[in-house]
TrEMBL record, chain A:
Residues 38-196 form the LUD domain. This is LUD domain-containing protein. It holds the Pfam family LUD_dom. SUPFAM superfamilies: NagB/RpiA/CoA transferase-like. InterPro entries: FTHF_cligase-like_sf, LUD_dom, NagB/RpiA_transferase-like. It comes from the Bacteria. It comes from Actinoplanes aureus.
């Protein structure tokens, strides 16, 4: 008998009482409420992300300013050309040390959750492989207002589980020292959100 | 032999970390004498209770979310065989390989073999209760493979040659100056000018682990959730060490208890609201990674999922006790427990400490192997209130107390008491004898050995001058005391 058959047999034996389960009560607030961008900004700032409200035409200049002169900005291959600052280099299956050497990475996002201050990346061409938003110390993320949803159920409904997903709420942090939140461990220590107008 | 196959089984002895060397009262006695430990715990649990309470109060539907979480978990238990087979099918279809491990020994052997097949002599690990439970690090070291814990608290425990004492924050018993000392002593290449400022300590861990992350080809993780319907796995974390382990290596090996499966993708909308607020007291933890099998060109190209029983089927077989399998490892029950706050996690002897550990560990091992744990509680009920999936821990504790084997002396005394109390004449005589003892013996608060254990932690009530029966018999004669 394989371990698979053994375990499934044990579990079936354990359930010989055939427990009957009532339907799951879903009385919590469902998806579909309208999102408030001001709430998102408040929550992002509370978790030490920096928010910049800029027009689409100002993205490249804002990024250049944030990174500073000569800063190397990594972008995913599908990022709109208009957003890229001068000298930005695109990920083309770059080796990890090249990615880690970037001063900042600039991406789009899939969804943002206002109530929790969360940005979700789904590895679409304008967001790139997961590794590129992990190794650089600065992550700059451009968000369109129609990508902002009210709460977690809205985000779950919009996302495709077949894609690799990264939910990001503020910069890397830890609560491991006396249970106080400290920003900056292994992931990017700085998160900038560029919020475009509606 | 065949009759035993398929019977729910407890976790085997001699491997893993579900059994302590001492009983809870013995271990707690030592812990209570450590005032630094108690100060650290009080500070940390007070901080987290405040944070958690604040963000839970922001959600008007918190109780509805708890109800949904509880019901989803009950549904998972009832349909576990179907959900596990569905998960296996979906993970396999998405390019993953599913393994089944009946116990800790088998899980350790599978992981060791998979690591050896890659040729790597080192693995990076993201914090996982399941791999702590099965003693994976010891098994890997035995096979000449170096496991590197990458979670800050696990790293503190590993460098300090210590044991975890909390589900979420394994180094909760250490304060910042102790952590600084551990780093100075055990972290290769650490700056000797290291201060005890938490951001400085975190930066030291970042520097120390960065090269290891980039050069290690195999990672081992646990899983917070696995979605049967889609084959998606989720790991919830804070520091980014999880993202490193789940993204950078060629091979990812995930060890998951069979109870962690969830039916539907939509169910995450409940648990992603419950877990961070109950656990770290955040609206959302900094990072959550979700992956479904293998994505060409992005992340590990070899993914193995190990489904672990190790006693869970035995827990499931107890129609009351199975509720302990609903646990999502948030540790809210530890943070509100007056017993945990004073004794810390080591006293529980298992990787699962606190109230949930007191109901989970004895069931995973069989009650006889953790017989003191169901008593490691005042039954105050704070854990039940705090639990995001509404596990009725106090009722489970009482349920398990009824299963604890009692010593022969205690059994004999209780049988004698039952016999006496069922016979009015004998009972009256016994009461008179007790009154005599009051006159003859010195007034004391403790029983003599071998019964002294019972009165070590409680006062023996004083025997009244007059029994109720005497008073009742005498009440009309005017003799009785009022």
């Amino acid at each position: 008998m394989s371990s698979r058959e053994l375990i499934l047999g044990r579990v079936r034996a354990a359930l010989r009482d055939a427990p009957v389960v009532a339907e799951v009560p879903r009385d919590y607030r469902p998806a579909g409420r309208s999102a408030d961008v001001e709430v998102l900004i408040d929550r992002l700032v509370d978790y030490k992300a920096e928010v910049h409200r800029v027009s689409e035409a100002e993205v490249a200049a804002t990024v250049a300013e944030l990174v500073g002169e000569g800063g190397a900005v990594l972008v995913p291959p599908g990022l709109p050309q208009a957003w890229r600052p001068a000298g930005a280099f695109a990920d083309d299956d770059l080796a990890p040390d090249r990615i880690a050497a970037a001063d900042a990475v600039l991406t789009a996002a899939a969804v943002a959750v206002a109530e929790t201050g969360t940005i979700v990346l789904d590895a679409s061409p304008d967001q790139g492989r997961r590794i590129i938003t992990l190794l650089p110390d600065v992550h700059i993320c451009v968000l369109r207002p129609e990508q902002v949803v009210a709460a977690v159920p809205d985000a779950v409904a919009r996302l495709d589980p077949r894609r690799p997903l990264t939910w990001i709420s503020g910069p890397s942090a830890t609560s491991d020292i006396e249970l106080n939140r400290v920003e900056g461990v292994h992931g990017p220590r700085h998160l900038h959100v560029l919020l475009l107008p509606g | 032999m065949t009759t035993f196959l398929g019977m729910p089984a407890t976790a085997p002895r001699g491997v893993g970390h579900l059994r302590g060397d001492q009983t809870f009262p013995q271990a707690a006695h030592d812990a209570l004498g450590n005032s630094q430990l108690r100060r650290n715990l009080r500070h940390a649990t007070t901080t987290i209770r405040g944070k958690s309470g604040k963000v839970i109060a922001e959600l008007p539907d918190w109780q509805s979310l708890r109800d949904a979480g509880s019901a989803i978990k009950a549904d998972v238990m009832a349909r576990l065989p179907f959900l596990l087979e569905q998960l296996e099918e979906k993970v396999t279809a998405a390019g993953g390989v599913v393994h089944w491990a009946a116990d800790a020994n088998e899980a350790n052997a599978i992981v060791t073999r998979l690591v050896q097949e890659t040729g790597s002599s080192r693995v990076i690990k993201v914090k996982s209760m399941a791999t702590q439970e099965i003693g994976l690090n010891e098994a890997l070291e035995e096979a000449g493979i170096t496991p590197v814990e990458t979670d800050l608290a696990e790293l503190i425990v590993q460098l300090g040659d210590d044991k975890p004492s909390h589900i979420l924050v394994p180094a909760i018993h250490r304060n910042r100056s102790e952590i600084r000392e551990i780093f100075l002593r055990a972290m290769p290449g650490v700056d000797p000018a290291l201060t005890d400022d938490p951001p400085v300590l975190a930066a030291a861990a970042r520097r120390y682990l960065r090269e290891t992350f980039l050069s290690t080809k195999v990672a081992v993780s646990g899983a917070n959730f696995a979605i049967a319907e889609t084959g998606t796995l989720a790991v919830v974390e804070s520091e980014g060490n999880g993202r490193m382990c789940l993204t950078l290596p060629d091979t990812l090996i995930t060890v998951m208890g069979i109870e962690k499966v969830l039916p539907a993708w939509q169910d995450l909308e409940v648990f992603l609201q419950l877990l961070p607020r109950a656990s770290t007291g955040e609206r959302m933890n900094p990072y959550t990674t979700m992956w479904t099998g293998v994505t060409p060109g992005d992340g590990p190209q070899n993914f193995h999922l190990i489904l672990l029983d190790n006693g869970r089927s035995a827990v499931l077989a107890d129609t009351v006790g199975r509720e302990a399998l609903h646990c999502i490892r948030c540790s809210a029950c530890l943070n509100v427990c007056p017993v945990y706050e004073r004794t810390g996690g080591h006293a529980y002897g298992s990787v699962y400490p606190g109230p949930i550990g007191a109901v989970l560990s004895p069931q995973l091992t069989g009650v006889a192997d953790n017989a003191s744990l169901p008593y490691a509680s005042s039954l105050c009920g704070a854990c039940f209130d705090a639990c995001p999936v509404k596990i009725d821990i106090p009722s489970l504790l009482v349920h398990l107390r009824n299963q604890v084997p009692h010593p022969a002396g205690e059994r004999a005394a209780m049988a004698a008491a039952a016999y006496t109390m069922a016979r009015p004449r004998l009972y009256a005589n016994a009461q008179r004898a007790a009154k005599l003892a009051r006159i003859v013996g010195r007034r004391g608060r403790g029983l003599p050995p071998p019964l002294s254990g019972w009165t070590a932690g409680r006062d023996l009530p004083e025997i009244p001058k007059q029994t109720f029966r005497d008073w009742w018999a005498a009440r009309d004669s005017g003799v009785g005391e009022r």
